[in-house]
Write a structure and sequence with these properties.
By secondary structure, this protein is mainly alpha-helical. It has a domain of 44 residues. It is built from four helices and no strands. α3 packs antiparallel against α4.
């Protein structure tokens, strides 16, 4: 039998959640992802409008554009929720200070 290499096995705690998204929301450093999304979206838009591209390619580009839009909306919603949680915690802290 082969032994598992401890370096290649993942800790279940590390595998849970979405650490990249969590870090992005915590730091709010969206410049890099905005640039990447913008470039990819522009390329997809060009493909979807290219008259020489096949119908299948255009549909795939349109679906990918929708995926980028939904991902952006999701990040915006997660950011709103983060701000709501921060406000709730601040309000709770003020209540506790008054007691």
């Amino acid at each position: 039998m082969s032994q598992k290499n401890p370096e290649t096995t993942t800790n279940t705690d590390d595998a849970l959640g979405y650490p990249t998204i969590e870090k992005l929301l915590e730091t709010e450093e969206f410049q890099k992802i905005n640039e990447s999304f913008g470039q990819a979206y522009s390329k997809l838009e060009a493909i979807s409008q290219d008259s020489s591209a096949g119908l299948k390619k255009k549909k795939a580009a349109t679906k990918a554009m929708q995926a980028y839009e939904l991902t952006t909306e999701l990040l915006n919603e997660l950011l709103k929720i983060k701000y709501q949680i921060v406000q709730m915690r601040q309000a709770e802290a003020k209540k506790n200070e008054k007691k």
